[in-house]
Design a protein that fits this description.
- There is one protein chain.
- By secondary structure, this protein is α/β, with parallel strands linked by helices.
- The protein has one domain: P-loop containing nucleotide triphosphate hydrolases (Rossmann fold), CATH 3.40.50.
- The chain is built from four helices and seven strands.
- The strands form two sheets. A four-stranded mixed sheet has the order 4-3-6-5.
- Strand 5 and strand 6 form a beta hairpin.
- The longest helix is centred in the last third of the chain and has 13 residues.
- The two termini are about 20 Å apart.
């Protein structure tokens, strides 16, 4: 059975630390998210984020998305399925605003 664990909270609350623990201890797959911002030094496409153009971002099956500083960020069904291909339990880190949009989408899909 496929599952996704969503870690939610403001920046600096330990979400990434908890995610790393689940990955290292239980081999959970990390859901790589998407962004339209350019990569920072050392960031790798498909590892840190999927770096998208505004056009490619608009074609994703987004589970949630937010905008910060005129750049889009979001989690997609495609990213979740890539995680599930590695392990039936995946972990996703979301800010509070992203979690709200994820919740709204999951409620409307019922």
């Amino acid at each position: 059975m496929k599952k996704v664990f969503i870690l939610v909270g403001p920046a600096g609350t330990g979400k990434t630390t908890a995610q790393e623990y689940l990955q290292q201890t239980f081999n959970f797959a990390r859901v790589v998210t998407h962004t339209t911002r350019p990569p920072r030094a050392g960031e790798v496409n498909g590892i840190d984020y999927y770096f998208e153009t505004p056009a490619s971002f608009s074609h994703l099956d987004l589970l949630e998305h937010v905008e910060y500083d005129h750049k889009a960020y979001g989690s997609s069904m495609q990213g979740l399925e890539r995680g599930w291909a590695k392990h039936p339990a995946a972990v996703m880190v979301l800010e509070s605003q992203g979690a709200q949009t994820y919740r709204q989408r999951s409620v409307t899909k019922r």
